Amino acid sequence: MARRNDHSKDELQRLALATVKDFLNLYPSQDLSLRKVAKLIGYSPATIINCFGSYGDLLLAANAETLDELHLLSNVAVREEVYPQVALRKLARIQLGFARKYPHRWQLAFEHRIPVHKALPEWHQMRIDRLFALFTEQLSRIEGRKKLQDIHIASRVIWAGVHGICLLAAGGGVISEKHTSGEQMIDSLLDNYLKSWVSNGQLSTTTS
């Protein structure tokens, strides 16, 4: 078993986060615990608490890494996309692909609950807002004449719809993708919602 001085605090934090990530790549978060993380890395639970503050804070830090990864994938996917409608579709499909590939990490990142008496840390809220901003930016490109509040609401409506589809893909719902794929549901959501939201004309949201 490793001793306390085998790793610096930063090294131990990275080790714990990598262990949580590796575990969630295979198993649901319900099967994880502070004691299990401690056992896997060879340190005591108290040492991990000293590094993160609490088990909940360890999970928040792990979720932050998931959100960073999602933002990087999303940003790369739309960075040079000319058509905002296509960019929205790409953003939605990045979420869907991640939820399918890493269902336990995705679920923990978006379904994790913190105690009611504790505020979400600013560094974590910033990561959530940054993901929302990618959707907001594309909607602004589609219909910049709308009020900013309307654009923000629309981005959250689309996000909520995509989130529900991803939840099904991640195995968190009673309805499966057996008869209708997640891609088809995303296409239907975006096609129909954007056509009713945009003031003029119909949009081509087809991508190869």
TrEMBL record:
SUPFAM superfamilies: Homeodomain-like, Tetracyclin repressor-like, C-terminal domain
Name of protein: WHG domain-containing protein
Keywords for the protein's UniProt record, in alphabetical order: Transcription, Transcription regulation
Domain (HTH-type transcriptional regulator MT1864/Rv1816-like C-terminal): residue spans on this chain: 88-189
Domain of life of the native organism: Bacteria
Keyword Transcription regulation: yes
Pfam families, alphabetized: TetR_C_33
